[in-house]
Amino acid sequence: MTIEDYLEKPYWVIDFLPRQVPADSRGQYFRVEEFFLEHPRIDALYRKFANIVLKLNCYEDLSFSQDGENVSAGVEWVTNPAPKLIEQMVVKCLSAKRMLYVVMESSEEMITLGSDDMYMTVYNASERTLGLLGSLAAAEGLFVWKPEQ
């Protein structure tokens, strides 16, 4: 399955908020978002994302690609790299304004993490994976929810 195939599948987000903020919300979402995008708060969020991916890798073989590079472009995906490298890929990739793609090898599910995003996106997730990710996210003070599509 290609990255484009995954992006057409149903998706959920792992976010610092428990649900989508309505467009007509009376709150100040954009000002709060700007606040959380500043250092050191965004760095702490990226570390939470790294922790989730690291813990997920205890249960699943994971393959990683920065910016969706693939074998046909001369760059291979890295499967089950060392934990330190996973942390570096998540934190540094996001800090460097790059996309990180993480594919769960056994189940055709994918996670994306994008620079300046305050959420992770999970595509084509099974109930089993959603349950596991829900527990891992909760341990980091984050939430899993399905956006209105």
> Which bin fits the share of residues in helices?
25-40%
| Largest beta-sheet details | 7 strands, antiparallel
Backbone structural class: alpha+beta
Beta-strand residue fraction: 15-25%
End-to-end Cα distance, whole Å, is 22 Å
Q: Number of DSSP helices?
A: 5
Radius of gyration: 15 Å
What is the 3D shape? globular
Low-confidence stretches: none
Overall mean pLDDT score? 91
Query: What's the total number of strands?
Result: 7
Lateral arrangement of strands in the main beta sheet: 3-2-4-5-6-1-7
Name the helix and strand elements from N-terminus to C-terminus, one letter apiece: HEHHEEHEEEHE
Could you list some keywords that capture this structure?
149 residues, alpha+beta, seven-stranded antiparallel β-sheet, 5 helices, 7 strands, 37% helix, 20% strand
Strand-helix topology:
Layout: H1 3-7, E1 11-15, H2 29-36, H3 41-56, E2 62-66, E3 78-79, H4 83-95, E4 100-104, E5 109-113, E6 119-123, H5 127-139, E7 143-145
Antiparallel strand pairs: 1-6, 1-7, 2-3, 2-4, 4-5, 5-6
Helix pairs in contact: 3-4, 3-5
